[in-house]
Amino acid sequence: MKIGIIGAGNIGGTLVRRFRALGHDVSVANSRGPETLAELARETGAKAVTVEQAARGQDVVVVTIPEKHIPELPRDLFAGAPASLVVVDTGNYYPQRDGRLDEIESGMPESVWVSRTIGRSVVKAFNNIYAKHLMENGKTRGADCPAHASSEASRPVRRVRVGSPPPARAPFPVLMVESEHVPRYPSSC
Ligand SMILES: NC(=O)c1ccc[n+]([C@@H]2O[C@H](COP(=O)([O-])OP(=O)(O)OC[C@H]3O[C@@H](n4cnc5c(N)ncnc54)[C@H](OP(=O)(O)O)[C@@H]3O)[C@@H](O)[C@H]2O)c1
Question: Ligand 1 pocket, 123 CB below 6 A?
Fold first, then answer.
């Protein structure tokens, strides 16, 4: 699969390593430019690219930057992207880090805020696991992982099965809503 990753920190860097180990074609970007990612590229075989390149021509794009930086992403980042593109958001809102975001404080789900800010529906995933656990504690093929699709437009996704493509329609009962797998809830580990 072609996977673009925007953000190369704790979670972004971990996902680069894990996706590359599975043989995916990974492009990774940060805010400072591809030259600052040369070492990660050398280590993993991922391509170090610009944010725009990480968002174009991919099957999946993972946005993994702190919420306060989401509004800095180019407004047209996903303009013209095909409907089949899946955008994953790993973010969690921490007011002490991100500053106060009034819409979220007023009850808007975080992923809806991200989705509206970047102009693209997102699936929220990898947000409820520490980077170290994501790196070291793999799940076996067939295991369930919690996920949440914010989208007003896309199909509902509550869980994805490791190693399987997402189902066209969730064949299982609704298991989670976003508020159950953001920090402070037991499913966040
Ligand atoms: N750390 C965890 O264990 C964990 C677990 C679950 C969820 N999360 C959530 O996942 C998100 C990322 O967390 P993290 O810990 O990986 O963050 P981090 O280590 O601070 O890394 C942030 C990354 O985002 C990049 N970035 C910032 N602004 C950018 C922009 N405008 N354009 C492109 N790249 C930009 C940074 O690039 P530069 O260095 O070049 O600025 C850096 O590579 C956060 O919302 C966090 O709450 C984290």
Answer: no
User: Does residue 134 belong to any structural domain of this protein?
Assistant: no
What is the C-alpha to C-alpha distance for residues 189 and 183, in angstroms, rounded to an integer? 8
For residue 42, the enclosing domain spans: 2-129
The reported pLDDT for the residue numbered 137 is: 86
Atom 47 in ligand 1: residue holding the nearest Cα: 92
CA 129 to chain centre: 12
Q: 3-state SS of the chain: helix, strand, coil percent to 5?
A: 30, 15, 50
SS3 (DSSP) at 47: strand
How far is CA 15 from each of CA 91, 110, 140, 188, rounded to the nearest angstrom?
14, 21, 16, 18
Residues of the chain with pLDDT below 70 are 138-189
**Nearest residue CA, atom 15 of ligand 1?**
10
* Per-residue model confidence as pLDDT tens digits over 11-39: 999 999 999 999 999 999 999 999 999 99
Distance 9 CA to ligand 1 centre (A): 5
Atom 37 in ligand 1: residue holding the nearest Cα:
30
How many separate domains does the chain show?
1
**Contact 9 CB / ligand 1 (< 6 Å):** yes
